Amino acid sequence: MDWLSDEDIMLEVKQGNIDALSLLFKRHHKHLFNFFLQTGVEYHHSEDLTQQVFYRILKYKDSYREKAGFRKWMFTIARNIMRRHFETRKRHPEQELPAILLNISERQTIDSEEEERIKALYKALEKIPPQDRELISLSRFQGMKYEDIAEITGTTVGAIKVKMHRALKKLRDLYFEKADH
Amino acid sequence: MKKRIIDYQKTDTMKCNNTQINALLTAYLDNALTPEESKMVEAHLNDCSDCLDELQEIRTLHLQIEHTPLIDPPTDAERRFRQMLEKQHKPQKQSITITVDFSWKKIAAAIIIFLAGAATVLLFQSKTDSDTSSIAHLENQVSQMRQVLMTALIKNDSPSDRLKAVQYAEQISGPSPEVTNILLETLNHDPSVNVRLAAANALHQFAVHQEVRTKLAQSLQQQSDPMLQIVLIKMLVQFHERSMVPTLQDFSHDEKTHEMVKKEAEEALTVLL
Amino acid sequence: MKHTILVIIIFWLAWQTGLSQNQYETKIPNIRKVLIEKIPGTLLIEQSQNNVFKIETDKEPSEIVEDERTRGLKPVTSSYDNTGLGLSLVQSGSNVTISGPNQFDATGNYTIFLPPEVEVSVDLTNPFSGQLVEIRGLKNSLEVKTLSGDIKFSNITGPTVFHSISGNIEGSFSDLNQEAPSSIISISGLIDLAMPSNTKAEVKLMSVSGKIYSGFEIEKEKPNKNKDPRAGELAQISGIGQKTSGKINGGGTSLILQSISGNIYFRNK
Ligand SMILES: [Zn+2]
Known about the structure:
The complex is a heterotrimer of chains A (about 180), B (about 270) and C (about 270).
Chain A: H1 6-14, H2 21-38, H3 43-59, H4 70-88, H5 104-107, H6 112-127, H7 130-141, H8 146-153, H9 157-180
Helix pairs in contact in A: 2-3, 2-7, 3-4, 4-8, 6-9, 7-9, 8-9
Chain B: H1 2-7, H2 19-22, H3 25-29, H4 35-47, H5 49-66, H6 77-89, E1 94-101, H7 104-129, H8 135-153, H9 159-171, H10 177-189, H11 193-203, H12 210-222, H13 226-238, H14 245-253, H15 259-272
Chain C: E1 4-6, H1 8-21, E2 25-29, E3 33-37, E4 42-47, E5 52-57, E6 88-92, E7 95-99, E8 109-114, E9 119-124, E10 132-136, E11 142-146, E12 150-156, E13 160-164, E14 169-173, E15 182-186, E16 191-195, E17 201-207, E18 212-214, E19 219-220, H2 232-237, E20 242-248, E21 253-259, E22 264-268
Parallel strand pairs in C: 3-7, 3-9, 4-8, 4-10, 9-11, 10-12, 11-13, 12-14, 13-15, 14-16, 15-21, 16-22, 17-21, 18-22
Antiparallel strand pairs in C: 1-6, 5-8, 6-7, 17-20, 19-20
The complex binds zinc ion.
Zinc ion (ZN) binds near residues 21 and 51 of chain B.
């Protein structure tokens, strides 16, 4: 099934074969989950929100436009759900990132230098504004294209090029400062 | 690659003044620029060492991010998703709820009280009948009580209660024709095969009487449950009851007879003939 | 039978309410016995809380046919779907009968929650019935009849009266009710029954051509005193089928397991 594009599968889902959605879930739920974590959603809520995204995809499958990028649509939904999540909860996205991102050695064996770097990276990510975190997560961690990110965030490609650079510059400055000490 | 990250030395000051071009550096590395923009950036990089250094820094960070593994979602994520999908297949559950009022319990209690009363009356009656209170007499009284309970229970709607009635009948010493008749009636007409079967087993001890055996043989003719047919055949063969021979012959010829019954009937015929 | 009351109006309301919240509660007085007949699909019966009696299904709500002629009239036939769940529910005296349609339909899963006090009788011998009935945790007196459908159960107490022509009967008791005998019969299916190891009973296990296995120590009863002098010899060579009977744990209520060609597994747990 790997040769099928996300869009082909989503079309299949739209036509009523809802089981096909499990293929898309398999492909993307990890990315979605990490997107939520990186934007500041707690561990268990990140999992809930991931499920919610797919539930919503299923619910609104009829509104999926043929040929429209699936990942773009998925992250648009994810972003809306994430915003609502922060609105309805006391927690603010400016707050610290979920602890799991920093507890690397608990999850896997990794050499301590590498661990330090990853920690430094997430600590830097924690200190930049939520909108910048979002851009970095989408672009660098989830591999979304500039065009798609522009559409997801409702801006132009030209603006994204600059915004991305600035967001990453903030991250860089914080990161290299940390990494050096 | 790790080496490069580690060896990297941060340049503290970025002095480039061309902020417009500088802002495109990240996009340049991501191949996200238009050809014109790319050319502009490349031209600038030729004479701006600050931007060249920054480009290196960007690349280093990108590599670091690339080497940062994603966090694994909880292991049951896929299962949860499947469950959700499963629910979508089926329409939402509907249900109806009814609250039950148990005033019938009072009625049941009233019946039990009545029965107990009836049994007591019976006991007293038999006591005044004769003063010879031998053990046999006491046994007789117990039997009579059982018979009262049995005749009441056998009419009950619940098959468990009727099974219980049959059990009482089995325990009655010196069974009366009345008890035998009730058991035969049960054997032939009870709606539950289980109760009919229990009746057949209870009648086993009365089968010493020829008239009971004749009735059992007649019953065999009308039973349709293979289990009952087998039990009755086995029982009657023990008593060498020849009157069932025509029925056994029917069984062995009838295609619809259960194969085990057919086997049983044929074996019985060889013994009886 | 004389006083058959159709609870149509209640269920019309239930259906109406069901549209919005899929659940409705009402009260039916004096229920003593619940008869469940020809349920399509699979049937699960569980114990309910608080004397409540509840039916659940994942079946599509049946269409309500609006017919000018029947307006204001109550349907009299019992196969009418007055529950909105594809089943009819009719009260007759202290009995309530729940039954499915007279048509083949293997779809849908029904769960019926029953209060502990009612007697339960399940009759799936109609060819339109589903192929599986499962009973979980019921403390009620149970009667179940099937043709080829399997009877499964767990944590019941009985008394039970189970009969199946070719279905398997398997499950476990949490305790054996001592108030009335229990009887389990399958003609060609197997019987696999587990009971707590301290169960007291007077057991009678019989299989004509199948094998009998028991995890219980059965204290054999004394050979049956045969009252017919002529048949005396015969009785000793042929008991009724392959038969084992006797007391377990000193004896108690009567427990009968019988099969013609299926094996019997009588386990202690
Ligand atoms: Zn420059």
